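Researcher: Here's a chain I'd like modeled. Treat it as a single chain, no partners, no ligands.
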Amino acid sequence: MIVKVPNHRFILKGFSQVTGGRSFQFEDIDENNVKTAVSVFADFTLIRAYGIGIQELPLLCLELLTRRADIKKSCNLVLTELEMDQIQSDRKTAKEASAQKRKHFKPVVSENTGIGWRANPINTQKSNY
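Model: Modeled as a single isolated chain. Structure tokens:
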């Protein structure tokens, strides 16, 4: 179940490389403009296992933050295996829905198709004139 955090904005402040993963630092700004520091850790072995690219991690961490409603003070979160499994199943569902939506184009074939390039070749015999 996705629970959006109402009236919150998350700003990516940076990341740091740590052993076995990457830690992303965000700033949570609530409706009263109160800023809270939040960090999210992503494990490299898990992202490889689930086929997630490193360049996708900031957006995945942001998605994790928007799903969480219990962020009150400065905290450290971890992108867990359960959440990555959920991300992978959501992607698979979206890909299947996109494939079903895609219209398959079937060209119309008529008896006149290609008549312009199938015409008789020009007479190449030399004339007697």
